[in-house]
């Protein structure tokens, strides 16, 4: 998208199994001149509709830029809340894109407004941008020290954010001290150099930054490395340079969101040195150890649970088969008001591959059960088509708590694990049995790959993950 | 649009003959409760497309609100620049809608940014809103004195603005000390009371504020009065109350934009106590005195020049006829790159009523000639259809200077009056002769109606108008 | 639209005051080669939306073509019913465009279906096309004699149709023997020859055929002549050639639709040698003679009644003024379910030019009153704004009967003239008085111009018009 | 879609791996009354966009109907060519929906046009409809014998068609004597009766007919049986009744399109008693026998080749893994003009699951290679990500010949198997080796399941399939 001969940009991929469409997208480019010219476009919907050809045309000037795709968490979904957020300051425009949710946003808003600043949106991105502009006071004669301002911001808010800050011809890539949200760097190497190795200081061809590494391949870039928890990385025509690592409070572990592995990320993304697919497969193996089943075949709810299902099959020795084919022409399954319509909705979305399982006992692997509305008609579909028993094995623990760090989870009341029906979940959804992966099992499946990795790379000394939605243990104290 | 049983709102009408479609529209409503809930919607294009039914639905809560339709002057046309501008302050949200252009915007932006405020748009509305929030410093314990803040703003910027400022359950309607932009108040009286008279203090049914009075009729309101130059009017559940009149510097005259009469306003609007149509008719009469023609018939370029043409016919004694009919199915005449295409474009838009003028000498009245691109093919059309001579009489003086007060005028170079061709304008556009109304003639045609009016209403003691685009004399010194 | 160096095409203009938007449009072009290639495009809505740029691109091959814009009369409004209708025959494709309604369509459909032809639409155009293909039987060895087939068709159905039939490199322009629907020929002369005179046989540059001559000017063509009642005109690379005139039954007069003058046609169109505007102005004069008024001023419901109003003013000696200005930003006035909403709808569409008529007695001219829903709120608007009396004068007689010849008139029950309220129409609509033009007055206003014309052109010996919707006298016996 | 308490309808599913979106869809319903009312809607694009809610609303009257989704083969893709085709005859309307392509369409068109019928489209559906209406001659006094007319049609054209003919309250489901196109019957049983068994004559709740059985599940219907080659089945309020089986010429085998198994059909559809998925899995097993590979892992080009890949893995004993994940947010891969853009297009559509195969030799199964444009960048993607060797195994033979029976295959020149590059196909696409399934292998994989089936069901005595696109042997002689 950004055919740069020089520097960098951010590209966020649409995320989350259940989030069948992002809400808005924005891009801001800078020509890097002095003074720079910024060009911006924002739109609602998927990138393809948010960026019509004429919008892209106007963005092609400039060799650095940041962009953002958004699925609303706090801010109401309106174009106005679209990122990146750009403001004009005494020393020119800064643009900020942000992934996450500031845990102390309320107190910070008060602080900014006390200075007489009116906030025009409810988004954290504007708040971050105004905080960067506000402190210390700006003066006309001295160029602002953006790195000091970013560090200052990081001392005011511990989590949860991955940031891109663009000013003139520099982009700063920042991850909060707990590393709650992902952020990684990729490198665009010209075709002729694709197989050569080059050090960071050498003449480079372009850099990209993204929440997920899977987006690199689609623009011809290669995964380079993660931004570390608390790290500020500068990207400019001089290449990539690590400027600083803001530490966590003594004793605190990193808290990368474990649900990125379970649910949100694309399987080909890499976090902490391991491929998400591999982690999911390991969850399936662990699930087979924790919850073995007396059955004939193992299968998947396509497509997100397939790695876990293959892992379960390998570990258990049961044959892996397909029980459902997906109808590519059905878009979103809207939430239907009653059981019969939900049944028809699922029957439209999935076709039963009857002959593969008729007369057999099926273990069906799902990656998570949030509300419990979809799995029930799938089970009925399989039983109507001849499955003698359907056992559900879930490759993650039940979600029980809200997330205050940027993940859109249903309210506590809507979560199936908090409902009375959960006591007899198998009966409620019509399964022969239901079993979940334990929190310990999940954590070990995730961290096993990192340990093996740490032998090679000593950069992150200790390992830790945020499991707040499963355990209620938040990485920092909540203050409201 | 705002079925209020209590207070008020602003409604701007799309304006300007040449401005065949506004660019964006926004509306913000408040439920007036404590703390209030604001609801907002903004959209691009005409009101009808900017406000789909579901947008209107969400706005129906609340009994006061402000809205804005916009044809960009300074700010680039993007949804982000849409008004009203709403910001959250320590004491709740304020919403501001603005018509005009701050003559010292550049210096004011610097001032705000020096405080560390980042400005997210290039619009004056955001600037005004942040200025109101900024000075004096806001404190949590004391409610802000908005009237003092508005007065403070008015001392910092002399012109050009008409404002609506909404806070909780009050709207302030403000006009700059020079009265450069129009603003007037209308009253919604319930059907049963339509013919009763009521004092300002009495129990009222609803108030509306608008740039142009013509918008009142379409929502069932009656014209009440103008906001005076420099006046701050408060509209609340207690009705309409004049709070203050901020004076002009000693010796300065009011400077209401004379082109509102000539060109922008709808003919049924009322300014300074007189109907725009009547002023235009008077301009036509004055033109007949200044520039009589030896011809057979008088006609108009439909529809905006019709009042002037009828005035010219009455004064000159020549018969008024129609020479062109408009094709309602042709939308905008896009600017065509060459003479032949311009000719076909005009031929598609206007049909020649041949039999009305074949063999005759025609005086064709136009209200203004800005670029000179349209009148030329019209003259050719008439001559091809049999007119023996076509004399052009323009019911306003030539435009020669830029406007820095909110009116979108082509650059100096594009104005026909500044081109070498203007020396032989008749030859250039193919007319038998061309004559313009004088500046003195225009001013007297405008002020004649006010003088007669002043006998009844002594409120504005002296009369003056901004003729900067015609004379280069700006009401205040320009500072950049 | 059809930049032909050689031959011709049809262009229908959207028609009718009340028909605020055509429903569909189609165009078919032929490259005239042997065998020819036809290219077609049809779309719903106005021409501008029915023909996106890529559709026009594919049509540019070929130097002759026919097109059609449609406001449904009999056929349901679906794309399938769009004209021109093209069918493939043993000898290649023919394309037919049709304006009007076959008075004996029902019997003709039966006839065609008895031959085993299935009819895929309810449109007369398909019926005409299949009739042309069917009789006499087609043979592979002999080229079909299309002129004989057209004559044969004309003996089977007397009225109402104007037709364009395209086959390979020839277009036949046909008008039914009664001349009920209009059809005229225009000539595209290259710019350099615009003022030279050329005989029909000479080297020509292009020909166009249209229902209304007003469409010629917009494509740079000049009015040439009407197709006569019953005439078949051939248009080809050899120019325009009259092939035959099929006669009416002995004693029958021509029956050109008088409502084309009153209501449907654009004022700059020419029928029977006279401009529609002039006829409407004459109707206004006649109305002033038949229905004089004791009043102060004459005005119009803009814009269609303006010629009649000017005629009334000239004849009566009363001054002509404007009382209403139109809001160009309001599209269609939808039929509103109650009086209050109708009032607001009209108040949105028209602004009252109060100062022009306050305290005066107004004669308001309308061109016709069909349902009576619009005039009533206009009268109220004027009276609220200060008119002391509003007298309605209608420049055509009341419509009382259905049209079976292609004009879309409300059902008999919906026509105000057939309702009980018509007895006190003035009271019903709130007018001081209401008077209509008489049928005799209308006919004489129409035919007066033709008589004077006949001195020059002896081609149509006798004069007659269809007044069926006013009198119930249909030009031919109705058979169902 | 058709909530019928009584009879039936047709529902075609969008088909074909490469056909990522149908072009148009139409539906016609009949209320079954005497005379019946038909309601129709047709639209372009996917069913969801072709049928907006208001269109569905108008279709809900009636308890039988036929519909059609279309991917153009012969007729140009315009709304006019949309099926079902409805024509009015002397005895009322018939509606026809058609899947396939008449092998002698050209001669039949001539025949119809010789009768004087003009054909308004290039579609076979109109041709079929007019043929049904034409012979024998229709008379007003006698109701037409539609079954005789259908039989008559079947003697005039041997293949390829599956038809639905609706007349008043009856639908005839027809398959050509060679059974080239699929057609099967499903039954809607009320929820309460879902597990009861019922004979054909009994009281039934509803019947549906479809090209593919997979569509039944999504509307709550169960697979009932196939329509046999040459069979005419009547569906009415009396249920399903087999009326006749029109035989093939002595000695000819059935010729069901073998590519329905390979490529077009959804894997959960049932043809000739066997599930398509099972046949594809068998093709994979057969391929492993015919073309074994010395490699480490087996994988699939998701998703259509997955059953074959699983079959190959089971037969070969190599482990099945996933090498690619699909990006759900990328729609269609447009054909890109050069290698670099094709590479990026594939990289956007598929993510490489690097850790699963880095350092390994991969056997990649594809279901067919038509043009060879997609497989090449996929191989490059895998090798760049670390695969040491990529062996391609194709689960069907090379396509070499055009299809004249309704399947849209690229021209002979575009088929990779007919290009010189095919001599070194592995080198051309960058694979370590390439091997295809043999024709004999494919036929035996298909027919093996039918043989086993024939033990139970003796209805189709002999087995045969159309392999024309692979072998050039067409089921009937081609006449042009």
Automatic annotation (TrEMBL), chains A, B, C, D:
The keyword DNA damage does not apply. In the C-terminal section; belongs to the purine/pyrimidine phosphoribosyltransferase family. InterPro entries: GATase_2_dom, Ntn_hydrolases_N, PRTase-like, PRTase_dom, PurF, PurF_N. SUPFAM superfamilies: N-terminal nucleophile aminohydrolases (Ntn hydrolases), PRTase-like. Mg(2+) binds at residues 304, 366-367. Gene3D superfamilies: 3.40.50.2020, Glutamine Phosphoribosylpyrophosphate, subunit 1, domain 1. It catalyses: 5-phospho-beta-D-ribosylamine + L-glutamate + diphosphate = 5-phospho-alpha-D-ribose 1-diphosphate + L-glutamine + H2O. GO terms for biological process: 'de novo' IMP biosynthetic process; purine nucleobase biosynthetic process. Keywords: 4Fe-4S, Glutamine amidotransferase, Glycosyltransferase, Iron, Iron-sulfur, Magnesium, Metal-binding, Purine biosynthesis, Transferase. Its EC number is 2.4.2.14. One of its GO terms (molecular function) is metal ion binding. [4Fe-4S] cluster binds at residues 257, 403, 466, 469. Pathway: Purine metabolism; IMP biosynthesis via de novo pathway; N(1)-(5-phospho-D-ribosyl)glycinamide from 5-phospho-alpha-D-ribose 1-diphosphate: step 1/2. Pfam families: GATase_6 (PF13522), Pribosyltran (PF00156). Binds 1 Mg(2+) ion per subunit. Binds 1 [4Fe-4S] cluster per subunit. It comes from Perca flavescens. Its cofactor is Mg(2+); [4Fe-4S] cluster. This is Amidophosphoribosyltransferase. Residues 1-238 form the Glutamine amidotransferase type-2 domain. Catalyzes the formation of phosphoribosylamine from phosphoribosylpyrophosphate (PRPP) and glutamine.
């Amino acid at each position: 998208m950004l055919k740069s001969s020089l520097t960098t940009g951010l590209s966020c991929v649409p995320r989350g199994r259940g989030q069948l469409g992002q809400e808005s997208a924005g891009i801001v480019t800078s020509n890097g001149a002095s003074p720079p010219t910024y060009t911006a476009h924002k739109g609602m919907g998927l990138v393809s509709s948010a960026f019509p050809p004429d919008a892209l045309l106007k963005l092609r000037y400039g060799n650095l830029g940041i962009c953002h795709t958004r699925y609303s968490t706090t801010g109401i979904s309106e174009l106005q809340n679209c990122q990146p957020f750009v403001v004009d300051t005494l020393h020119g425009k800064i643009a900020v894109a942000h992934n996450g949710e500031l845990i102390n946003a309320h107190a910070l808003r008060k602080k900014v407004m006390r200075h007489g600043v009116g906030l025009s949106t409810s988004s954290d991105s504007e708040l971050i941008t105004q905080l960067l502009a506000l402190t210390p006071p700006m003066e006309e004669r001295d160029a602002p020290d953006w790195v000091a301002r970013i560090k200052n911001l990081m001392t005011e808010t511990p989590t949860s954010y991955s940031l891109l800050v663009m000013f003139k011809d520099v982009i700063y890539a920042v991850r909060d001290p707990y590393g709650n949200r992902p952020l990684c760097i990729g490198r665009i190497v010209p075709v002729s150099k694709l197989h050569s190795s080059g050090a960071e200081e050498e003449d480079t061809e372009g850099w990209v930054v993204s929440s997920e590494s899977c987006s690199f391949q689609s623009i011809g870039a290669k995964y380079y490395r993660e931004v570390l928890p608390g790290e500020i990385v500068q990207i400019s025509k001089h290449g990539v340079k690590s400027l600083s690592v803001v530490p966590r409070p003594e004793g605190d572990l990193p808290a990368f969101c474990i649900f990125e592995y379970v649910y949100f990320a694309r399987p080909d993304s890499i976090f902490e040195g391991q491929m998400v697919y591999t982690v999911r497969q390991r969850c399936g193996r662990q699930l087979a150890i924790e919850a073995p089943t007396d059955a004939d075949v193992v299968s998947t709810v396509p497509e997100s649970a397939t790695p876990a299902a293959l892992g379960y099959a390998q570990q258990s020795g049961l044959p892996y088969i397909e029980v459902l084919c997906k109808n590519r022409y059905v878009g979103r399954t809207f939430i239907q008001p009653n059981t019969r319509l939900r049944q028809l909705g699922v029957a439209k979305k999935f076709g039963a591959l009857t002959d593969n399982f008729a007369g057999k006992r099926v273990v069906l692997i799902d990656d998570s059960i949030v509300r419990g509305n979809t799995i029930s008609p799938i089970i009925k579909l399989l039983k109507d088509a001849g499955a003698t028993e359907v056992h559900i094995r879930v490759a993650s623990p039940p979600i029980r708590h809200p997330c205050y760090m940027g993940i859109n989870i249903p309210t506590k009341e809507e979560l199936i694990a908090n409902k009375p029906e959960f006591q007899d979940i198998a009966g409620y959804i019509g399964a022969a049995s239901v079993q979940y992966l334990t929190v310990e099992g999940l954590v070990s499946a995730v961290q096993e790959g990192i340990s093996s990795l740490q032998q090679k790379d000593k950069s992150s000394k200790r390992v830790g993950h945020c499991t707040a939605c499963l355990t209620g243990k938040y990485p920092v104290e909540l203050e409201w």
